[in-house]
């Protein structure tokens, strides 16, 4: 079974720590679709940044950023957020880059989507351009 996640990434990060603020910039948006191209509504969609700078094997990594939403009836989702202080420290320690993990779960259908992607942040916001991708579900 093939399932795709189509998403675009866009936004400018402003100073602050608020999460899920309606006027915050869009960090990621997209549409969950199944193998037939039909929307997947009601899936839990999450976006994380973990701080792995001093990670050891088997260690649970501290979360520097976490945001969640649910895909709509049309399969669309959008996560708007401002960076936390922990995420800003991670970006500063990583020469301006942050690595996001985007995931989506539809427990009823037993589906999971996952994608890791970097973003570069400069003084005025995101430096890189918006991206669109299609993903298949993760097995297992």
Which key terms come to mind for this protein?
about 140 residues; mainly beta; Immunoglobulin-like; five-stranded antiparallel sheet; four-stranded antiparallel sheet; 1 helix; about 5% helix; globular; disordered N terminus
Task: Please characterize this protein's 3D structure.
This protein is mostly beta strands and 140 residues long. The protein has a single domain (4-128), classed as Immunoglobulin-like (Sandwich), CATH 2.60.40. Helix content is 6%, strand content 43%. It is built from one helix and nine strands. The chain has one helix at 85-93, and strands at 4-8, 26-33, 44-50, 63-70, 76-80, 97-106, 111-122, 125-126, 132-134. The protein has a five-stranded antiparallel beta sheet with strand order 4-3-6-7-8, with helices on one face. A four-stranded antiparallel beta sheet has the order 5-2-1-9, with no helix packed on it. Strand 7 (111-122) and strand 8 (125-126) form a beta hairpin. 26% of the residues are buried. Mean pLDDT is 74; it is low at 1-19.
